Amino acid sequence: MRSNLARPHWRIPWGIRGCLPSGATACGRIFVWRRRTTLNEETKKRLATLLDRYDEEQSGSTQQAQETQTAQDALRTSFGQLRTALIRPLMEDIGTMLQKRGHAYTIVEKDASPDAPGTLQDGMIAMYMFPSRSGAPSTTRALGHVPHIAFRSDPYWRRIIVHTRNVTPPYGGLPGEQREYALSQMTAALIETELIQVVEGMFHI
């Protein structure tokens, strides 16, 4: 007895009905691919070009990072020399004149060093001034509330940061001012000007 169900229609792969894909032979309804042992020359060239470009970019990034680190280290070194050769001597000269008139001062320096988490903290030098009417602060934390000037390096932006505050308690609690200079601008004349401006503000002159 013959079944009335239609027989399934088997689709013959295109490659069998016509020409086979490159590198294949037909076995029934299945393609059998011949093993390729090497890439073709065009693929090799494209891959080599990609790898060359990647290596060039990585080499450029590494060189740029090295140059940046070298420049930052150079700024730290130069700032350390600037502190010793110019900033501190000028601070001491002004401080000596203040002391002769009954005022006081102190200088605080810090070298570049890592903090507890390991982040490098850049070097700084600061001069704190105490007019005779105010007296010296009782705690180190209170130093931030007296007239002062601080110089610190900022290797990331390759600048020297100058922070000043010339108001003494109880005349106000202003946060002070901040200016930025290139290392080449840090001359004796500029440093003297920054120092004397703090003294002028301290005495409200």
Write a concise keyword list for the protein shown above.
single chain; 205 residues; alpha+beta; 5-stranded antiparallel sheet; two-stranded antiparallel sheet; 3 helices; 9 strands; 22% strand
Describe this structure in words.
The strands form three sheets. Strands 3-6-7-8-9 form a five-stranded antiparallel β-sheet, covered by helices on one side. Strands 1-2 form a two-stranded antiparallel sheet. Strands 4-5 form a two-stranded antiparallel sheet. The protein has three helices and nine strands. It is an alpha+beta fold. It is rod-shaped and about 100 Å long. Helices cover 39% and strands 22% of the residues. Helix 2 packs across helix 3 (188-202). The chain has a domain at 74-202. Residues 8-12 have low confidence and may be disordered. The termini are far apart.
